């Protein structure tokens, strides 16, 4: 069995990027979504990209971007992965693939078994889907809320395309999550923070260690 990939999302400083890379993260995520406490401008994301060491992939998270935002993101940030975390249809992802050499990921809010069937419409377009918890009522953020969904929904599920697990993962539960679901990639943001948008380097290291040893 190959090692679980680890994405630390919502990074905003060279120091936390270095901590994630040093701890063994395979992917680091930058959030370009103004309502988020983890938001970075595209210009800042481009600067941060230069601090990412070789061998670690940079993921740019966007939410329902317009064409100009997407074009600027590709030019300024040159991400390895564009992660769509809004209500984007398959056509939006297909357009991004035509305009960029980056991988294209789609986050899916998993409310019930029916949510998992919606993944199939992205087959052949998305390089990966991220199965995440729905945003709590009243939240302006589509992800990064620390909410979880029932991992039982993934038991014996036949995945339509490569996937990863998100939603409420932290150093204390990520090993259980991997064992329960067989997730090939795990993604955390608020689970390694001391306050919204403030990453904790010790928690990043603990998360990566727990995922690696699961």
Q: Your description of this structure?
A:
The protein has 214 residues and is of the alpha/beta class. The protein has seven helices and ten strands. The protein has helices spanning 14-23, 42-49, 67-77, 90-99, 113-117, 174-181, 201-213, and strands spanning 5-8, 27-32, 57-62, 81-84, 103-109, 128-132, 163-165, 185-188, 193-195, 198-199. The strands form two sheets. An eight-stranded parallel beta sheet has the order 7-6-5-4-3-2-1-8. Strands 9-10 form a two-stranded antiparallel sheet. The longest helix is centred in the C-terminal third of the chain and has 13 residues, at 201-213. The mean pLDDT is 93.
Secondary structure layout plus pairing:
Blueprint: E1 5-8, H1 14-23, E2 27-32, H2 42-49, E3 57-62, H3 67-77, E4 81-84, H4 90-99, E5 103-109, H5 113-117, E6 128-132, E7 163-165, H6 174-181, E8 185-188, E9 193-195, E10 198-199, H7 201-213
Parallel strand pairs: 1-2, 1-8, 2-3, 3-4, 4-5, 5-6, 6-7
Antiparallel strand pairs: 9-10
**Tally of DSSP helical segments:** 7
> How much beta, percentage-wise?
15-25%
Output the helix-strand order.
EHEHEHEHEHEEHEEEH
> Strand tally, please?
10
Which structural traits does this protein have?
two-stranded antiparallel ribbon; 30% helix; globular; 214 residues; alpha/beta; eight-stranded parallel β-sheet
């Amino acid at each position: 069995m190959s090692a679980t990939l680890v994405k630390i999302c919502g990074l905003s400083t060279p120091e936390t990027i270095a901590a994630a890379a040093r701890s063994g993260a395979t992917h680091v995520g930058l959030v370009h979504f103004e309502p988020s406490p983890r938001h970075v401008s595209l210009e800042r994301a481009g600067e941060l990209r230069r601090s990412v060491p070789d061998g670690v992939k940079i993921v740019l998270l966007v939410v329902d971007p317009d064409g100009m935002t997407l074009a600027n993101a590709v030019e300024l940030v040159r991400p390895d992965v564009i992660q769509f975390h809004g209500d984007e249809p398959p056509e939006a992802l297909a357009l991004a693939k035509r305009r960029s050499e980056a991988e294209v990921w789609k986050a899916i809010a998993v409310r019930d078994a029916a949510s998992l069937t919606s993944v199939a419409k992205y087959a052949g377009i998305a390089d990966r889907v991220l199965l995440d918890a729905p945003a709590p009522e009243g939240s302006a953020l589509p992800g990064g809320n620390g909410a979880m969904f029932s991992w039982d929904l993934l038991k014996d599920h036949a995945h339509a395309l490569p996937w990863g697990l998100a939603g409420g993962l932290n150093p204390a539960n990520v090993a259980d999550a991997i064992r329960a679901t067989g997730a090939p990639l795990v993604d955390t943001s608020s689970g390694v923070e001391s306050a919204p948008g403030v990453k904790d380097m010790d928690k990043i290291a603990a998360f990566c260690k727990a995922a690696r040893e699961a």
